[in-house]
Amino acid sequence: MTRRHAVLLFCLFVLSLLPACGKKDWPEPVLSEDRFSFKAIRAERKGACLVVEARVLGAVDNLSALSVQLMEVGDGQAEGCPGCPFKPTRAETFLPGQAGLARIGSAFRVTVCDLNPDSIYVWRVMAQNQFPELGPVFSELFSSWPK
Questions:
Q1: How far is CA 125 from CA 40, 54, 136, in A?
Q2: What gap in Å lies between CA 89 and CA 56, rounded to an integer?
Q3: Is the pTM of this model over 0.85?
């Protein structure tokens, strides 16, 4: 092998490495594939507990946390009023696999307890996506009345 052949082989080797020298980034979420939304939410008040079932539409496997945010309505200083803007005074957060969060297909069921059984609560559900840049998903506001 001549020196010319050795130099030519070395140049070919270096040229074969060039495609691997490009810019590498972490994968970014694809909005149409990685988002989810709430399809339906229903709840039932059972004494001092609120059982919430949220049906999710879209990339349900990307849900990384589910929270129930509550505001007690009443005359107390830490309570909201019926027409006041929603300012949650309590939030219960559940993670997939954690006790208290049950998944049935594309639906999630959580139970929030230690509520005042004689109070009215305004509440909503918030879900976090595993891709933080997609932001949280909020449900509409609901009211829960004592039985």
A1: 11, 8, 10
A2: 25
A3: no
